[in-house]
Amino acid sequence: MSILSTAATVEHRGSGPFTGLDVADVAGLRLTPGSPRPVFDHDIWNLSGLTDAPVIMGAHRKILDFTQIANPRWRLVARQYLIARMAPGHPAVATLPHAIRSPLNPNSLWTALKHLTGWFNHLTDAGVASLTEVTQAHCDSYLQATAHAADESGRRLSPATLTMSVRAPQMLTLYAEILDDRYRPGFSPWAGRSPDVVAGYQRTYGNRVPPVPDTLLRPLLANTLYLVTTIAPLLAAEAGAARTADQREAASRQHLPAQQLNRLREEICFRTATGIPAPRLSASNLTRRLARGWDQHDPLLHLAWHPVVVQAIGAMGHRRDLERLRPELEAWVAHCGIEQPWARHAATVARQDSSEPVAWTLPMSRQQLDTTIYALTSACYYLTATLSGMRASELLELTAGCRRRDELPGGSSRFRLVTRRTKGEPFGGVEDAWVVIAEVDRAIGIAEQLTGAAPGQRLFATGSNNSRSRFLALREWINSDAGRRLGLDPIPDGAINPRALRRTLALTIAQRPHGLMAAKVHLKHVSVATTEGYAARPGGHQAAFIAEISAEEEAEHLRLTAAAYRDYQRGVLPTGNGARALIAAFQSVDQLLARQAPGPVTVIDDRRVERLLKATAAALHVGVGNYCWFTDPSKALCLKLAGTPEADQPLIGMCDSARCPQATHHPEHRPVWAEHAQNINSVFLGNPRLSKPEQARARAAFDRAQRVLAEIDAADADPDEEAAHADTGQDVDHGL
Fold first, then answer.
1. Are residues 250 and 186 in the same domain?
2. Residues near 320 by beta carbon (within 8 Å), at least 6 away in sequence
3. What is the pLDDT of residue 736?
């Protein structure tokens, strides 16, 4: 059946309020001039010309094929239901008491039709010819059949997906008055039960997207940074040359003029004399040559003849021309050999793992070049996703020319990417900008060079717009011989997508300063850029992202506070000048719990402890080697040193936790202080060139680090050992 809108059979066109109406006009959708305009009565609605469709809306979702519904009568019902959902303001729909008042997003039409098709075809298979015959038994059998079905990958449907299958039959009851076939009066599928209850779906209200594990994130981040910074600029030159060659071939004449034959002969002799290898034929063209009867031992079998003629003369190379110049061509091949045509003179770069110099690539065929361009464009895509937190829909809306750079006082710059926000917005979305760091701006610039996209053209849009295919292509290239020769870290099996990367970035910023990303990029810059983007456009892209970060930061601080409280319960006390106040806060929690003794109703669990610790956790600010409990700004040493006592946040970068009355040290901070002491001892105290005042300052810093280490070690001692010391009358210093 043609993909163009197809008229429905006469007996099932219906005579309702939508007959003969233009679907796009009724729904208020814009179509590009000349594109198909589906009419309500057609059994295929071709909406491929939607002007405002987001890039993430695949082409298949714009074709609504009602012929998949076996019963023609229910095709009409499906069309009536969907147009009612698309146009809630239509007079026939506006008067329905239970109709949904917000229009259905066109991106959801295909999914809605898919679930209706499953329901209707199940009824057909059960021998039902009219919705008036439907009973609850039919609904239950449909649920059972759907629950045991599998998706395209062979996995069982999740309860969330099953919920959508249950909702489709129920929604028809809301529009019964305008449907040509409807359930019997008083009947509703799974009456009184919501789709969630029927499907057994427990709805969660927090972000449950798992972050990318370190085993995947580490090689992905390291490799993409290296590829975008070191390899992609070199590849961009080859990509530009390939596009130029394509343009030259497209403009080439159809035949090689006879008067140009001598000129081509001279060009071949010149290449022979200068030692330029002949270009190698692609594998697909080699197969075609052999099928046409070429001799397998022909010395010119592997010669790519057509590109030579196009490059030298700008004409098409035919077999007869090759035979006329066979002596010169055979001499060329015998003297210079045959080699892949692209990246023959690859520059030398430092391997990622050892910094050993190596050519960035071996000579490539055109297919290998295109594969490499796609892989490194995917590296730009995933580096942008990793360091910005953009959604897949926002990444796909990025175009050539989307970068903006604002020069700030002091010589710094603010980088922005102009894209479109589609999630939670009316169909088509709204233009917005995302503030990013320099690494992301560079990645988008490289993607522009690799793709050669004209201004306004999408950078990452493909036929499928599937981020998984990009990741698989990138991983395959990194794990191939090409990646191994560059010393890239292999990426293990696993799944990575922009949703998981967004979640990972939110957690990383919330849990700073520790973590992998802080070692690879300036994590502080990511945090600052995200905050600037939110402040510039409070309702924009980064508003939701900053809310995710804040929620994760609050959860992380509560987790750290609860962990410190558990240590306190085990006898591992905090140290530092703020330890006494923190222990007092923990003791007050003990007292509150003691007054709430467990009974038949009251149970002391982790949730109750966390609620009691919430106020203490709200004051926590995480430093590199300490926790800052910022309860009283007037006591903050950092604010005194900076001369800003009115500030409402500590200056963690100026923290001197060994002297601050609100700072504490815990066992997890020991490695930081141990490394700090070792660096002072090896770099400063062992340097005879240091002056005496500098030696004194270094000695004081070393002694302070040693004191902090001794306090942490004493507090982390075995409680049984401490009890033994107490029995012998020895004091144990907890830094109080």
1. no
2. none
3. 28
Q: Residue 481: which residues within 8 A CB-CB, separation 6 or more?
A: none
Kindly report, residue by residue over 691-715, the tens digit of the pLDDT.
888 888 888 889 999 999 999 998 8
Q: What angle do CA 672, 555, 593 make, to 5 degrees?
A: 100
Distance between CA 16 and CA 18 in Å, rounded?
6
Helix or strand holding residue 46 (H, E):
strand 44-46
Q: What are phi and psi of 188, to 5 degrees?
A: -145, 135
Query: Which tens digits make up the pLDDT trace of 101-118?
Result: 999 999 999 999 999 999
Stated length of the chain = 736
Residue 526, both tokens: 């990511």
- In this structure, are residues 617 and 586 in contact, taking their beta carbons and an 8 Å threshold? no
Give a three-class secondary structure readout of 550-618. Answer: HHHHHHHHHHHHHHHHHHHHCCCCCECCCHHHHHHHHHHHHHHHHHCCCCCCCCCCHHHHHHHHHHHHH
Domain membership of residue 631 (yes or no) is yes
Instruction: Tell me the C-alpha to C-alpha distance, in Å, between residue 541 and each of 104, 390, 422.
Output: 23, 8, 10
Please indicate, yes or no, if residue 475 is contained in any of the structural domains: yes
Question: Mind listing the pLDDT tens digit for each residue in 559-612?
Answer: 899 999 999 999 999 999 999 999 999 999 988 888 765 544 444 567 788 888
- Region 547-559: what's the mean pLDDT? 82
Q: What is the rounded distance in angstroms from the CA atom of residue 579 to the CA atom of residue 627? A: 10
Cα–Cα distance for residue pair 682/191, rounded to 1 Å: 76
Contact predicate 446/453, CB 8 Å: no
Rg from Cα positions in the chain:
34
Give the chain's end-to-end CA distance (angstroms, integer).
83
Largest CA distance in the chain: 110
**Alpha-carbon span 664 to 715, nearest angstrom:** 12
| Whether residues 253 and 188 fall in one domain | no
Convert 444-478 to b/e letters by CB count within 10 Å (16 or more is b). Answer: bbbbbbbbbbeeeebbbbeeebebeebbebbbebb
- Last-in-domain residue among 148, 179, 199: 199
* Residue 622 within any structural domain of the chain: yes
Q: In terms of domains, do 188 and 221 share one?
A: no
Geometric angle at alpha carbon 733, from 731 and 735, rounded to 5°: 155
Please count the other Cβ atoms lying within 10 Å of the Cβ belonging to residue 280: 17
Torsion sign over Cα 622, 628, 632, 633 = negative
Contact assessment for residue 139 and residue 90, using Cβ atoms and an 8 Å cutoff? no
Token pair of 570 as six digits: 């085990």
What is the DSSP secondary-structure string of 170-204? HHGGGGGGG-SS-PPTT--TTTT--HHHHHT----
Which residues, 6+ apart, have CB-to-CB distance to 243 below 8 Å?
A: 452
Do 530 and 583 belong to one domain? no
Report the alpha-carbon distance of residue 665 to residue 576 in Å, rounded.
Answer: 6
Calpha distance 239→317 (Å, rounded): 23
Task: Please report, for the chain, how many H helices and E strands are present, in that order.
Answer: 29, 12
Domain count of the chain?
Answer: 3
In-domain check, residue 158: yes
Residue 264 tokens, joined:
């081509």
- Can you list the alpha helix ranges (DSSP code H) found in 645-717? 670-679, 692-715
Query: What phi and psi values does residue 524 have, to the nearest 5 degrees?
Result: -60, -35
Which residue type sits at 61? Answer: R
Q: What is the pLDDT of residues 174-185, one digit of tens each?
A: 999 999 999 999
Judge residue 700's burial from the number of C-beta atoms within 10 Å of its C-beta, 0-12 exposed, 13-18 middle, 19 or more buried.
exposed
C-alpha span between 506 and 503 (Å, rounded): 5
Paired tokens of 622: 């995480």
Residue 525, CA distances (Å) to 196, 229, 347, 435, 628 in order: 42, 18, 32, 11, 21
Domain assignment of residue 285, given as a range: 205-537
Looking up tokens 């609605």 gives 45
Half-sphere exposure for 234 (CA within 13 Å, toward CB): 18
pLDDT tens-digit map of 339-388:
999 999 999 999 999 999 999 999 999 999 999 999 999 999 999 999 88
Query: 181 and 214 in one domain?
Result: no
